[in-house]
Each structure stands twice: as structure tokens, then as C-alpha cells.
Amino acid sequence: MTASDIHRTVDAVWRIESARIIAGLARLVRDIGLAEELAQDALVAALEQWPESGVPDNPGAWLMAVAKRRAVDRIRRQERLERKLEEIGHGLESADPAPEFDAVLDTEPIEDDILRLVFTACHPVLSPQARAALTLRMLGGLSTEEIARAFLVSEPTVAQRIVRAKRTLAEAGVPFEVPEGAERADRLASVLEVVYLIFNEGYAATGGTAWVRLDLCQEALRLGRILAELAPQEAEVHGLVALMEIQASRSRARTGPSGEPVQLLDQNRALWDRLLIRRGFEALLRAEKLGTPPGPYVLQAAIAACHAQARTAGETDWARIAALYEVLVRLTPSPVVQLNRAVALGMAYGPERGLELVDALVAEPSLKNYHLLPSVRGDLLARLGRLEEARAEFERAASLTQNAPERAALLNRAAACALS
């Protein structure tokens, strides 16, 4: 193999194996920053040795073995130092022998370690942006450059977020564990928020020149599916997976020939991925079979399922969608959910009904710079024939979005209102 082939192989192995290697090391050293450092050391060793020795039959196990040896060496050096200090301070002549670290590392399934890593990387002590960057780094195996490109920020910004996140976790003494009891539900919500944040940035990019970034959608789906395997009794995990599967099924239909956004009602449903829809329905069924009251992600997945079941836009059961949003609003009373409910009400019972709710949200401070508020209001006004008002709303929405294709689409809608 050439050097470039070796590098590609190492990159592929790292992407697949990095999460389990870092997770296993983190249980040993109790510090995810140090765990990643040790794993990276093993990666460097592979780049140095594999061109000469060849790629091993089990490259993941090779990396884990090298990283584990370095972890053990580091811990034993630290123990020798502490033992010397203890002898000096207390006049001790001997100390207990070092533990058998291989046994310590191999006592629990690697799946448990990965679940601990998920909960640690997504700890609410970190900002959502830091959680997302650290999760993509630790669990996705993405480089700083890849994360920066995905979120349209500079590499130094991402690097600083990751460094600060590791430092914050260490300073806060965040334990490397899966929380139990009441804390588990709160921490799980934080984990799901991070995964869905990653998915949404790919599904409807907040900035840049692309409307959809499939790499982020796929990474979020991968993380969600892993989480569903690790926590099979959590209905909200299955609900999030169902939601992402169904939404991802529309990817090919969401952009036109020039990359312009295509609204849901105008999409060619023949382009929807039936396999992803089926997987989404199966995940939703798993959530419902657990018998717990539906949470926010299960409800949103049920809404997405309504769209997926309609063969045409005209067959959409908007009354059921509006009813599901009513439940969701009671559970998660956010202005954004209210805005989505207004869309459903406008489709089910007429634009006047939707506009009434949207007008009540205009003064909401958190929606002041949210481009979808004037976008939705413009759509409702256009359906009512109030085209001049609609044009102004679409222009305002265009001025607020940071995504170039979306801005162009909104300006086109504004122009259409002016010509009518």
C-alpha cells in the first residue's frame, strides 16, 4: 500500500473506532480530554508504523492496545510519583502493588463506556455549541477542520470550544458515568438536544451557500441509532430517531435543480426515501410500545409520520397534525412550537386561524430576529390575498436569514407577490 493508502485507511479506522477507544480509555483515566490525547497518540503510532509493518488484521484492536499501554504507563508513572511522595511524607517503606489495569479496563462491555461518553460529552454544564463540537469530535471522530466546515465557523473557534469544554468538564468534576434517577431524564434531554441540533444544522443550514448538508444529517442519524441501541428502554431516543429518519427521507426532494429550497407542500414525494420512512415508522412503533406518555420527540415524530403517510400534499391530515401540536405546546410551551402550530391550524382550518396565532407571536422577544416568523406570516397573508403585506414579510424574512439559497427563495416569493 502507498503512504496515501495508509493514511486513508487510518482515517477510516479512526472514524469507526475512535468512540469506543476513547470511551474505554476514559473509564480508566476518568478524563475524556486525557483519553482523547492517548487515543491520538495511538493514531500517530499507526501513521508511523503501519507504512513499514502493514495494516494489522484488526486495526481497531491494535489502536486500542497501543492506547491502553500508554494509559497504563501514564497511570503507573503517576502512582510511582505519588508513592514516592507518600514515602517521603510518612516514612513508609512499601506500598501496595499496582493494579492489573487490563482487568480493570475489560470488566464492562464497551457499549456501557460509549454511553458514559455520550452523557459526559453532552453534559449541560457545557453550552449547546460546545456539546455539539465535543460530541462530533469524541463520538463522530470528526476532525476540527470538518466540524468547523460543518458549522461554518473558523477552525480556531472550534478548537477553542473543544479545549474549553474539556477543561470545564474537568474543573466541574463531571463524573464519567451514566446518571440515574431523576437526573437521568434531564441529562438525556441534553443528549437528545445535541443530536437534534447537529441534525437540524444539516437539514436546514442556518448559513452558507447550501440549503442541505447531508454529512451532518447522516452523522446525527448515526449517533441517534447508536444511542437507541445503547438505551433501548428510552422512548424519547426512539422518538428522535424516528423523527430524523422521516425528515431525512425527504432530502432529495428538498432542493431544486439549482439547489434552491423546495417547500414541503411542493416536493415531489416520489423522491422521498421509502426505506428511511419505514425505518422511521419502526422506530416510532418501538417508542409507542414502551407505553410511556409521549414526549416532545415522539410527538414530533408522529407529526412527521402524518406527512409521510400522505401520498399527496392534499391528503395530509392537517387536523391531526394540529391536534398533535396542541399536545406538544402543552408539553413544550415554546414560541417556535406555537409558530409551527399556527402553520398547522392555518392549513387545517384556514389562513385566518393561523394568522391570528402568528399575530399574537409578533411581540415575542425571542422571535424578534427569527426569520421563519415573517416567512410564515407572509405565507398566510398571501393565501388571504393580502399580497402587499405578504411581500413586506417575505422581504423581512430574507433580510434575517443567513442562508443564501433560502434568502433567494424568499426574495422570489416577495417578487411574485409584487407581480400578482
Automatic annotation (TrEMBL):
Gene Ontology molecular function: DNA binding; sigma factor activity
Keyword Transcription: yes
Sequence ranges assigned to domain DUF6596 in this UniProt record: 187-287
Family membership: Belongs to the sigma-70 factor family. ECF subfamily.
Protein name: RNA polymerase sigma factor
GO biological process: DNA-templated transcription initiation; response to stress
The UniProt record lists the keyword Transcription: yes
Keywords: DNA-binding, Sigma factor, Transcription, Transcription regulation
Ranges for domain RNA polymerase sigma-70 region: 23-80
Lineage, broadest ranks: Bacteria, Bacillati, Actinomycetota, Actinomycetes, Streptosporangiales
Origin species: Planomonospora venezuelensis
Signal peptide positions (record): none
Pfam family, one: Sigma70_r4_2
Segments forming domain RNA polymerase sigma factor 70 region 4 type: 119-169
InterPro entries reported in the protein's UniProt record: DUF6596 (IPR046531), RNA_pol_sigma-70_dom (IPR014284), RNA_pol_sigma70_ECF_CS (IPR000838), RNA_pol_sigma70_r2 (IPR007627), RNA_pol_sigma70_r4_t2 (IPR013249), RNA_pol_sigma_r2 (IPR013325), RNA_pol_sigma_r3/r4-like (IPR013324), WH-like_DNA-bd_sf (IPR036388)
